[in-house]
Amino acid sequence: MGWVGLHGRPLVGWLPLGPRATARVSTPHPPHSRPYNDYDGGATVLVVVRVDILRIGAHPMFNVCPQCGEYSVEKTIEPSDIGTSEMAYAICPLCRYAHPFLRQPLFIITGASGAGKSTICLALVPILKECVVMDQDILWGMISATPEDEYHDYRNVWLRIAKNIGQAGKPVVLCGTALPEEFETCPERRYFSTLHYLVMVCDDGVLVERLHQRPAWRHSDLAAFVEDMLQFNRWLREHADKTNPAMTLHDTSHRSPGETVEEVAYWIRQRL
Predict the structure, then answer these.
(1) pTM of this structure
(2) Distance from CA of residue 63 to its chain's centroid?
(3) What are phi and psi of 158, to 5 degrees?
């Protein structure tokens, strides 16, 4: 398998319904003139959505209180004194009903276009059976995602999806370009124990070569795009330990895809 990323695969999954909450944060951006995603346009991404009910106990969709029926994302989270360490309670701010749920970790694999995210995401699926691995770009263009709100609407929807998937007992691994500030201030963030960030980086020459190897429809060989990715890749190398929380760097320059997949799987398993 080469390093050329693959996109446009259909998804059959669960899409939560309900109002979106937004948050805003003012922080300096890295030198990157594009939105923080790896979707380059030029083709339609087909997403097939099946609406299922994911449950813990007998309660579906726990942003809706099973007792009073009111919708609230901003519930108080309290640890459970029974069961496993992942068990917690979401307390309704209106009626104080304590809804039990699994408070899972969330793993986010990020990096510039060409760093290896898509290849790793696809290769992790068959070997990391203890997690659900998903590419964030499958919903790009279908849900609001704007720099004006730091992409929080988009990230918040992904947190809601991952939260509900996690109730089946498996944490989620999200692959796609993002920064911690885009997730950490979202209302849905409270439903996770920890967000772990792994940044894929590589040498400049390797990144340029990978971008030029991509199919023409992705326009990844345009000079302006290549320069944007080089600057973003350099910024990640220099600032990964300065974000809040800090991100872990993983250099893919001199590793085969197979070696990288094994190392990423090990990194995730050490944090489960």
Answers:
(1) 0.77
(2) 20
(3) -65, -35
What token pair was written down for 59?
């309660």
For the four alpha carbons of 180, 182, 187 and 191, in that order, the dihedral sign comes to negative
C-alpha to C-alpha distance for 111 and 136, rounded to whole angstroms: 13
Residue 38's pLDDT is 44
221-262 pLDDT, tens digit each: 899 999 999 999 999 999 999 999 999 999 999 999 999 999
In a domain, 129, yes or no: yes
Q: And the tokens for 26?
A: 């003012």
Does any domain span residue 2?
Answer: no
The answer to whether residues 131 and 249 belong to one domain is yes
Q: Summarize pLDDT for 199-225 with one digit per residue, the tens.
A: 999 999 999 999 998 888 888 889 999
Which structural domain range is residue 83 located in? 55-102
What is the C-alpha separation between 60 and 164, in angstroms, rounded?
A: 9
| Short-list 269, 5, 265, CA closest to 135 | 5
The residue among 34 and 161 whose pLDDT is bigger is 161
**Cis omega (within 30 of 0) on the bond before 245?**
yes
Dihedral sign (CA 28, 22, 62, 143): negative
For the chain, the distance separating the N- and C-terminal CA atoms, rounded to the nearest angstrom, is: 27
**pLDDT class of 61 with cuts at 50, 70, 90:** low
Confirm whether 192 is domain-assigned. yes
